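Recap from last week: sequence in, structure out.
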Amino acid sequence: YGGGGYGGGGYGGGGYGGGGYEVVGGYGHGGYGHEEHVKAITITKEVPVPHPVYVEKKVPYPVKVPVDRPYPVHVPKPYPVHVEKPVPYPVKVPVPQPYPVHVEKPVPVPVKVPVDR
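Predicted structure tokens:
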């Protein structure tokens, strides 16, 4: 009935890949001749098998590169530069000197604020 094995078959297919149940029985009381079936359920579960996973890790290492030393490099020397600053500038619009400018000054005003005690 059960077909236990790798693929199963038959009534329950109780091997790997099958799932189901198997009927297990035997002769009962005193050997009369009737068969008493006892239901038994076999649960099969696939268990994952671990396998090695190889990971490549980068390892830094020094690499020797040939460099000619000392290497001549031209460094420019600082030199003075004349900058023209024409002063005074010509004024296109005539401005009377001095002229009055109105500036507002804030005046403090006392304000009573009620305080609950």
